[in-house]
Amino acid sequence: MTNPWFHFLAPAFYLAAGGLLAIQLARARPLAGSARLGILALAGGGLLLHGALLLGRLGLDGEVNLALTSAFSLVAWVAALLFVLVALTRPIENLGILILPLTGLTVLIEWLWPGSQWLRQPTTPQAAHIIISVLAYGLLTLAAVQALLLSLQERRLHSHHPGGFLRALPPVQTMETLMFQLIVAGFLLLTGTVVSGLFFSEQVFGRPLRLNHHTVLAIVAWLVYGVLLVGRWRLGWRGRTAVRWTVAGFALLVLGYFGSKFVLEVVLGRA
Which residue in 103, 115, 176, 177 has a CA-CA distance of 20 to 30 Å to 264? Predict the structure, then answer.
C-alpha cells in the first residue's frame, strides 16, 4: 500500500522545483552549477514519489489502469522524467516552470478523481504500444511547451523588449533547434504508435481497426507533425510558423486521446 502522504509530497517537490526555476527566470539568471543540480534533484524526488504512486495505481496483479486521470498522470510523469533526463545535457531546464507544477497537479487530480478502466494482463504487443505511445506523448509535450516559450521569447524580441527573463534563456536558434529535436524523436515514436494501431489492431486491441475519433485525430496529428518536419527540411520553416504547427499537432493529440476519454468516462459515464 502506497503511503498516502505521497499524494502531497510529490506535488510539493514538483512545485518547489518549478518555483525555484521561475525565481531564477524572473531574476534573469541562467541556471548553472549546484543550483541547477539541486533543482533537478528536487524534481527527481517528485518523480520517485509520483512513480511509486503510479506503480500502486497502474500495476496490480498484472493489470493496468488506463482510466482518464491515471493515463493523464502517467503521461505527465513520463514528460517530467524526460525533462529531467534531457535537462542533464541540454539547456531546457526552463521548461520545468510549466512541466513540473502541471505534473504535480495531475497527482492531485488522479487522487481526487480516481478512475477505473483496467486492461487485464496486457499482451506484449499491447504493452509495447502503450510504452511507445506514452513516450511519444511525453516528448511531444516537451516540444509543445518549448514552442510556447519560444513564441513568448520571439514576441518580446519583436516588441523591442529583450530584457528581463530573456537574458536567462538560450538564444532563439538554440531554442528552436531543441524544439525540433524533440519533435523528431516524438514523431518517430508517434509513427510507431500509429502504425501499430492501424496495421496490428487485432494483436494490440484484440479487435479489427475502428476509425473512431481517437484514431482519426491521431492520424491527423501525425500528418501535421510530418508536414511540419518536411516544411522545416525543404522550406526552412521556423519562428511563428513552426510554433503554430507544433501547437496544432499537440492539440490534436490531446483532443484525440484525452478528449475522447473525457467524453466517454465523464460525459457519457462509460469505462
Answer: 103
